[in-house]
Design a protein that fits this description.
The longest helix is centred in the middle third of the chain and has 25 residues. The two termini are 53 Å apart. A hairpin with a 3-residue loop joins strand 17 and strand 18. Helices cover 13% and strands 32% of the residues. The protein has 14 helices and 47 strands. Helix 5 runs parallel beside helix 6, helix 7 packs parallel to helix 8 and helix 11 runs parallel beside helix 12. The strands form eleven sheets. The protein has a seven-stranded parallel beta sheet, with helices on one face. A six-stranded antiparallel beta sheet has the order 3-2-4-9-6-7. The chain has a six-stranded antiparallel beta sheet with strand order 40-41-38-39-45-43.
Length: 972
């Protein structure tokens, strides 16, 4: 008897080009199955794509490395047959009486045929739809079953014009598929157009009755005190007799370990006729003051376990379904004061600071592990929204699960984007996809797939375009709001019980979230569909704060630069790609950057805009080599994106309701618009955003030089103070003030005072400014913000000689290990002499979040410190001391006796190796840092938490780099 439930088929797959197989599906799943990975068969990536499989088997070069993509045959030149592939696997499933099994494809691209034990099924067209087949009657009695799937590429894969462009020749827009695959200004073409079984394949075993697509909705009354859970689902009786069912709904919360507390248990009796599918709605489940789900930065992401089971009389448990569910109310209206779209969660306005998302990987090599890293990175940047752009995917349940866990609201677009749907060169088809019924079928199925996630906040018809009128009208109908979610403030104070029956909100397709027809309509950009998003290039940092920078309440796309660290360039390009841009002086005094062909191919965006913005890297002096260029680029990245977000929050509610940066990451090894690269290493912009988007934040208005405190939280802060100190390149502190007894009201921007130092006669050309917001009672730092600044009309070239400073540091580290997971806590202190003892020099109070029960705090032996004899010798030359303190703490003290700021330091984690080739990437990625690219004034200390997983057999090494610590000290 097979176990009830789902089995994912994600291993043991083979693939072969259909033209090389010479067999049909009946033969492959009866008398002539492939015996293993011998030509033409190869190990396949499932879920994945044809191109992903070819890359895995090294039959084509890695298209993300250098110019390799140019060596791969494009489907426009090869024909669709070249990328039409067979996928084959076997699976075990042996049923007993009254059991049934379904074969499920959560998504394929673009159409196909399925053969199971010689029986054929059709996979209809459409990239964003689920497919389910009842295969009960065709399973083999011995339980060993053969499965072959023939996958056809999109019908209209298109051709890439010589000039490239947005969406190639736009032909892909005629299909219901992702449109980025013909290339964009940030992406090269995907040669197979993502043909493949790109999402989960599974079999599900049930008894005679199956649970299908439950819909969960929470409604709120009495100012959030009284909450109802509404649940509607379908039941399908696959037997030939009336099923007497006991339908159970359980709501529980996880305590410690695997212990759960049941919050609600409900049982209903249901009769399901033979061979029929019926809808059933539970009586609403009542909860009093449940733990609410909040977006990142506003509160906890409380999730309840919802379990639904159906027991059939005479059989027992027939099927079950589980989901993590968050009680929360999402509202979206146009703000009267700003004209921007205003989001409220649980009745609280939320100032949106987030980013645009394409997809995790351009070849659709999607995984739970990669999704979790991606989403946690967004939460680490203090973002609260991700926009799933219309040229990409209807994102997967795994993506949404981690957005639920980390508190990222999601704006989900359907598959319309103006470049492929009504404009462009040549002008694209204005009527969207050819098959409107298919589009609507996929849209409805996507809504059902994703609607139970609390993170899902908004449905949008398309990117910079609205769907064709009939599709738009249908989507509005599908997504019409239930009356409970149409009230002006969204929170009823009625004490009357809900009216039951046909008006139950869970009987709607969604009914809880607003639908907007396009990304520049109805509260976004100018609200009318005109091109009023952007800009997308380098800006003068102070311009973000000026009244005329952006005139509308919510900008859905504004972007800038994003060069990664030098190690990523070396890891993703051959040596000829390590050449930095040429800097050409123009007659108007501006600098033009001319990138090498590989950077140009990887969509590099310059750090200058001749005529408007002087080259921001040249402000630090001419870059000498790749290391120098990329290090200076991180300085610019940090300043650029911090200023962008601070400029928006400076006008919170008075001018703006939110902003989404274009874009947060690249689905390949691109060189623009990213906060972390495709290898998962962060840029300086990541930490600029992390700083600027913290819930309570002290900042400098770069246009007015006034200190401001932004409080996006719902809490009033009293008895707090701001400390402002200016430091020069000699380590002196010519300006120091504390502004005490401040009152910070919730959701407001408070202006403190103007920093007048740059207007003084003794002001230095380049200086540092440190701002700290702290509680007066215990000196706990709430917000810390460090700036490097130059006088008006100046530059940062004096920082070049500052590299020679040797500012002494003391780094105390503590390591905790559980399995392959490392958590390292670094206490870094600037040991240079304090010139003025009266200075507060407040330390950041960062709590140790690691559980001492789970980690070994007292490591001994070589597993803890990866130093061979050669490294120890180097260590003695660059470090004054290396010792073990109390409680297993490791202490490193660097050489140097210069007073001053330890500037722009950053940690990295590497695999310890005695010898490695030039350009070899020794980094361990991804790594989560509580902060990085940080600076410390004299006497100041900071705690940095670092966590990462180590591959088997690898010993990690943690190094510290810095502007004036460029010897890359090994500190662990």
């Amino acid at each position: 008897m097979a176990a009830i439930g789902k089995t994912v088929l994600d291993s043991g797959w083979l693939a072969a080009r259909s033209s090389e197989v010479g067999l049909n599906g009946v033969q492959l799943t009866t008398t002539r199955p492939p015996l293993g990975p011998s030509a033409p068969w190869m190990e396949a990536v499932v879920p994945g794509t044809v191109l992903g499989t070819l890359v895995k088997n090294k039959l084509v070069p890695d298209p993300f490395y250098g110019l390799n993509n140019e060596a791969i045959l494009d489907i426009a030149d090869s024909g669709r047959e070249f990328y039409t592939f067979w996928f084959f696997t076997t699976f075990q499933c042996k049923l007993s009486g009254n059991q049934h099994v379904d074969l499920n494809f959560r998504a394929i691209n673009y159409s196909g045929e399925v053969y199971v034990n010689g029986h054929k099924k059709i996979l209809p067209k459409g990239m964003f739809r689920r497919h389910t087949f009842d295969i009960t009657d065709i399973l083999h009695p011995d339980g060993k079953n053969l499965l072959a799937v023939l996958i056809y590429p999109p019908d209209h894969p298109g051709r890439i014009p010589p000039e490239g462009g947005q969406g190639g020749d736009h032909a892909i827009g005629q299909d219901v598929a992702a449109q980025y695959v013909e290339g964009w200004d940030w992406m090269t073409p995907i040669r197979d157009r993502n043909t493949g079984i790109w999402d989960e394949v599974s079999i599900t075993v049930t008894g005679p009755v199956k649970v299908i697509d439950p819909h969960l909705v929470s409604s709120f009354f009495d100012n959030l005190k009284r909450v109802y859970l509404h649940t509607t689902l379908d039941l399908e009786n696959k037997s030939s007799w009336i099923a007497e069912c006991s339908l159970n709904l359980q709501v529980s919360t996880e305590l410690e370990g695997s212990v759960c507390m049941v919050e609600h248990l409900q049982t209903q009796k249901v009769l399901v006729p033979p061979g029929k599918r019926v809808q059933y709605t539970f009586l609403p489940a009542f909860f009093y003051k449940p733990n609410l789900w909040w977006p990142n930065g506003m509160g906890e992401q409380s999730l309840y376990n919802i379990g639904i089971t159906v027991d059939v009389k005479g059989y027992g448990e027939s099927d079950s379904w589980t989901h993590h569910f968050g009680f929360r109310k999402i509202e979206s209206t146009i703000d009267k004061g700003t004209g921007g779209r205003l989001f409220k969660v649980n009745g609280e306005p939320i100032f949106i600071r987030g980013g645009n998302w394409i997809l995790s990987d351009g070849l659709l090599r999607l995984s739970k592990k990669r999704y979790e890293t991606d989403i946690k990175f967004h939460a680490d940047m203090n973002f609260n929204m991700i926009r799933c752009w219309g040229g990409g995917l209807a994102e997967r349940p795994d993506f949404y699960h981690y957005c639920d866990v980390y508190g990222l609201l999601v704006w989900q677009e359907f598959w319309i984007t103006g470049d492929c749907d009504g404009r462009g060169i040549p002008v694209s088809n204005p009527d969207g996809p050819l098959d409107h019924d298919l589009f609507l079928f996929c849209a409805k199925d996507t809504i059902i797939l994703l609607r139970n996630h609390p993170s899902l906040a908004l449905w949008v018809g398309g990117n910079e375009q609205t769907p064709p009128d009939d599709i738009n009208k249908a989507l509005r109908s599908y997504l019409k709001l239930h009356p409970l979610f149409q009230s002006s403030n969204g929170l009823s104070n009625s004490s009357e019980d809900l009216t039951l029956g046909s008006d139950d909100p869970s009987q709607y397709l969604d009914g809880t979230r607003v639908y907007i027809q396009g990304s520049m309509w109805e509260g976004f950009a100018n609200g009318k569909g005109d091109f009023t998003d952007g800009p997308y290039e380098i800006q003068n940092p102070e311009d973000f704060f000026k009244d005329n920078f952006y005139n509308y309440g919510f900008n859905p796309e504004v972007g800038s630069v994003g060069v990664p660290v030098a190690a990523t360039i070396r890891a993703t390009m051959p040596p000829e790609g390590w050449q930095i841009p040429l800097f050409k002086k123009l007659s108007n005094g501006y600098m033009q950057e001319i990138p090498n062909p590989i950077w140009d191919y990887h969509k590099y965006i310059p750090y200058s805009k001749p005529g408007k913005v002087h080259d921001q890297i040249e402000l630090y002096g001419s870059a000498k080599d790749l290391n120098d260029f990329c290090e200076k680029a991180q300085l610019v990245n940090y300043i650029q994106y911090r200023a962008l977000l601070e400029g928006w929050t400076s006008r919170m509610w008075t001018k703006y309701t939110g902003v989404l940066i274009w874009k947060t990451q690249n689905p390949w090894t691109g060189l623009r618009g990213q906060f972390y690269d495709h290898l998962h290493d962060q840029t300086g912009g990541f930490y600029g955003c992390r700083c600027a988007a913290e819930p309570v934040h002290v900042q400098l208005n770069l246009a007015t030089y006034f200190i401001e405190v932004v409080n996006t939280s719902s809490s009033k802060l009293s008895d707090v103070a701001v400390e402002a100190s200016v430091w020069d390149l000699d380590g002196q502190c010519p300006y120091y003030k504390v502004f005490e007894t401040l009152l910070l009201l919730p959701k407001t921007v408070t202006q403190i005072t103007e920093i007048k130092y740059p207007k003084s006669k003794t002001a230095k050309p380049v200086y540092f400014l440190l701002l700290k917001l702290f509680n007066k009672s215990d000196s706990h730092v709430i917000s810390r913000n460090f700036y490097w600044l130059h006088l008006p009309g100046g530059d940062y070239e004096l920082l070049e000689s500052y590299r020679t400073k040797r500012v002494p540091l003391k780094i105390t580290s503590q390591v905790m290990i559980r399995g392959s997971t490392y958590k390292v806590q670094m206490h870094v202190k600037n040991m240079s002499t304090e010139p003025q003892p009266k200075i507060l020099s407040l330390e950041n109070q960062v709590a140790d979040t690691c559980d001492s029960k789970d980690f070994n705090r007292n490591l001994t032996g070589e597993a803890e410190v990866s130093l061979n004899n050669q490294q120890v010798g180097l260590f003695r030359r660059i470090c004054r001391g290396f010792s073990r303190g109390e409680n297993g703490l490791q202490i490193v003290e660097t050489n140097g006796n210069d007073p001053g700021v330890a500037f722009f330091m950053y940690f990295s984690v590497h695999a310890a190796k005695k010898d490695h080739e030039v350009g070899e990437d020794t980094r361990i990625l991804p790594v989560h840092y509580s902060d990085n690219f940080f600076s410390l004034v004299p006497g100041e200390a900071m705690v940095i938490d670092i966590s990462f997983q180590v591959p088997q057999g690898v010993t990690p090494r943690v190094t510290l780099h810095g502007w004036n610590h460029h010897a890359a000290h090994s500190v662990l």
